[in-house]
Design a protein that fits this description.
about 280 residues, MetI-like fold, disordered C terminus
Length: about 280
């Protein structure tokens, strides 16, 4: 009887997981299907799982705009990859300094980081834009990448993960063996932090890739536009809104995010498994 109840429970859990998986995949599937449909078809039936024959036509409309989606894709990729690399590395480095080293104002510095987390980015945008304008860097992609070095929320997450995960005895042993500090960080701390880095890399890449506000403020040159700006311009067509082309642009925007998740998801699963074993 007990075995039968366990079997029924497993079946119900399996059905629930399949249902949730379908709910998660359905928006992406509808988006991809709509990229093959015409504007009229989408307006008549917004939800459809049957592809149409307007894929090439939507692609022509998208490529026929005043901007180049390929350039936007490259710009978004450069910015997102740069932001992800800088944010994850320097945030982990800062967390390492907060966990491993004993210094006088360590707790005060961490409290300062916590305080900065409470300030919305929109409040600081006016001062940031004025600074960028004065140094004549308004149309430079580097101004979208370099600020990622300071990421308070990621520093907080990395510190909380590193405290139980990184053994200080290992660091002390490496120092006794003559290892330099950056060698210890790059060869010992970073591999231990892989699950946390992968998790934050996904969130950071997605956030940077979908960021519209900051590029819209700083960029005026069409050659520097990112994909979110181009997609927003598609919706603002004064003659006719081509929904098929918009879905085509959204599909182009979503594909890199899916690829990044598939590449890094195994590290997240490894981190969850490691946490369960420790617990």
């Amino acid at each position: 009887m007990k075995t039968k109840n366990q079997t029924v429970k497993k079946i119900l859990i399996f059905i629930l997981c399949v249902f949730l998986a379908i709910l998660s995949v359905m928006p992406f599937l509808i988006m991809i299907v709509n990229s093959t449909r015409s504007t009229t078809e989408i307006q008549q039936h917004a939800v459809s799982l049957i592809p149409s024959s307007y894929f090439s036509n939507n692609l022509k409309i998208l490529l026929g705009k005043s901007f180049n989606p390929a350039v936007g894709f490259v710009n978004s990729l450069m910015v997102s990859v740069g932001v992800t690399l800088l944010a994850t590395y320097f945030s982990t480095l800062t967390a390492y300094a907060l966990v491993v080293y004993e210094w006088k104002f360590r707790n005060a510095f961490f409290s300062f980081i916590m305080g900065i987390m409470m300030i919305p980015a929109q409040i600081t945008m006016i001062g940031f834009y004025q600074m960028v304008y004065k140094i004549h860097m308004t149309n430079h992609l580097s101004m979208l990448i370099l600020p990622a070095i300071a990421s308070p929320s990621m520093v907080f997450f990395m510190r909380q993960y590193m405290k139980p995960a990184l053994s200080l005895e290992i660091v002390q042993s490496a120092r006794i063996d003559g290892a330099k500090e950056f060698f210890i960080f790059n060869r010992i701390a970073l591999p231990i932090m892989k699950p946390a880095i992968a998790t934050q890399a996904i969130f950071t890449f997605v956030s940077s890739w979908n960021n519209l506000f900051t590029p819209l403020v700083l960029l005026t040159d069409q050659k520097k536009y990112t994909l979110p700006i181009m997609i927003s311009l598609l919706r603002g067509d004064i003659y006719k809104t081509e929904y098929g082309a918009i879905y085509m642009g959204l599909t182009m925007t979503a594909l890199p995010l899916i690829v990044v998740y598939l590449l890094l998801s195994r590290y997240i699963i490894a981190g969850v498994a490691l946490g369960s074993v420790k617990g």
